[in-house]
Design brief:
Layout: H1 2-25, E1 27-32, E2 35-40, H2 41-49, H3 51-63, H4 70-83, E3 91-93, H5 95-106, E4 108-111, E5 114-118, E6 124-129, H6 134-137, E7 145-149, E8 152-153, H7 159-166, E9 173-180, E10 183-190, E11 192-195, E12 199-204, E13 208-213, H8 220-233, E14 238-242, H9 251-261, E15 265-271, E16 277-281, E17 290-294, H10 301-311, E18 316-319, E19 327-333, E20 339-348, E21 364-365, H11 384-396
Parallel strand pairs: 13-14, 14-17, 17-18, 18-21
Antiparallel strand pairs: 1-2, 3-20, 4-11, 5-6, 6-7, 7-8, 7-9, 9-10, 12-13, 15-16, 15-20, 19-20
């Protein structure tokens, strides 16, 4: 009996010893100015990895010629980490920047009402001016390159800063230096509260409905459904969907709209290292002749919808080649008012095409006259793209 008790105690001792050994192997004692602290081995590896960052902060705080603010150093380090990827759509946002960004997606913000992106040459390019905003009234056009904001040179490397500089309180002014067709000029524009009305509808002759979507914000899908239901109640026999100068917006809103247009099936596929998804329309679809107007100002979410309509042969695209933004961003909200926007995937149309940098070619390429400016309301006399779309839809009405 005593021998059995000995073996039990020995086994217990071995177990306890192994547990202690494992625990000790996975913790590290780290020397700090005020003493030592025990951390996990994983935490210790992180401390070692970023020790140079801590050393730079300590040196600048203690020895830089002027007194420095540690929070500014930290923000610079965070922004630098995001910027090092050289992806203009991946940015760390401080409290003001994050607030401005989130405000825009809900539909109201202070600014001039233009949407910008970055081209292959790292220029900040106007995707489109937003309807009925100071930018549109000042004559800003799709394709304009913004060279300076308030006399400060800007490029794709500081896209986020440039956007923040263009926004501001109602009644204040911002000066843009713009390059268009090789010529440079300046525009001083007074900021306003930008309230986005993203959906406009009208019944054209022969019971052909017209819906224009200017961008995809949090209310666009609901507004689109209301417009579609109204036109249907008026006896609509075909539809023209105008996505010209639509810079995109929220993917979820695009998918909700696709449910009302596309039969059941794939709308878009996203592919990344950790984010691989297929988005489907629930159907049953529009079931009427459909033409979609696009141009070089049609980007991102509007290209997703247009690409799905073209690939699924639900309707035809009319106009000029789209912008070509085939990247998907997502947001990390850190809970302290700051956030990170980063590219998580590329998106692919139902046929497996990624249009990044290439855009989508319409089924019918139709250019507007050089002297023609798109109107706020549908123009069946001068708008050659709309006229072509109208003819196509009319010919398909049974």
């Amino acid at each position: 009996m005593a021998k059995k008790r000995f073996y039990i105690l020995l086994a217990m001792l071995l177990i306890v010893t192994n547990v202690i050994t494992f625990a000790l192997a996975n913790v590290v004692s780290v020397a700090l100015p005020n003493g030592k602290v025990i951390v996990s081995r994983e935490e210790y590896q992180l401390i070692k990895k970023y020790s140079k960052l801590f050393e730079i902060e300590k040196t600048l705080e203690n020895r830089y010629v002027d007194r420095v603010n540690s929070s500014i150093l930290l923000e610079g380090a965070l922004k630098g980490m995001a910027n090092s990827l050289e992806d203009p759509y991946t940015v760390y946002m401080n409290k003001k920047e994050f607030s401005d960004f989130m405000t825009q997606t809900t539909g109201t913000y202070g600014g001039i009402g233009i949407v910008v992106a970055v081209d292959k040459e790292d220029h900040i390019v106007v995707v489109s001016p937003i309807k009925n905003t100071p930018g549109e009234r000042a004559g800003i056009k799709s394709g304009d390159i913004i060279v300076e904001v308030n006399n400060k040179k800007v490029s794709g490397k500081n896209l986020d800063e440039a956007v923040a500089m263009m926004r501001g309180p109602q009644g204040t002014e911002v000066t843009l230096t713009i390059m268009r067709e090789g010529k440079t000029f300046t525009k001083t524009i007074t900021r306003e509260i930008i309230k986005l009305e993203t959906v406009y509808d009208e019944m054209l002759p022969d019971k052909i409905g017209y819906i224009k979507i200017t961008m995809f914000d949090q209310s666009t899908a609901d507004d689109f459904k209301a417009a579609l239901d109204k036109l249907k109640s008026q006896g609509m026999k075909g539809l023209i969907l105008d996505l010209r100068d639509n810079p995109g917006g929220l993917l979820e809103e695009t998918i909700d709209i696709s449910n009302l247009i596309l039969p059941k099936g794939v709308v878009v596929t996203t592919k990344g290292r950790v984010d691989n998804k297929e988005y489907y329309s629930k159907g049953p679809g529009l079931g009427l002749p459909l033409a979609v107007l696009v141009n070089k100002g049609s980007a991102s979410a509007s290209e997703i919808l247009a690409g799905a309509i073209k690939d699924r042969k639900v309707g035809v695209l009319v106009g000029s080649n789209t912008f070509g933004k085939g990247l998907v961003q997502t947001i990390v909200d850190f809970g302290d008012g700051t956030g990170l926007k980063y590219t998580i995937a590329r998106y692919y149309t139902p046929n497996g095409t990624n249009i990044q940098g290439k855009g989508i070619e319409p089924n019918y390429v139709v250019e507007l006259p050089e002297s023609y400016t798109l109107q706020d309301t549908p123009d069946l006399k001068g708008d050659t793209q709309l006229i072509k779309a109208f003819e196509i839809v009319k010919s398909e009405i049974k």
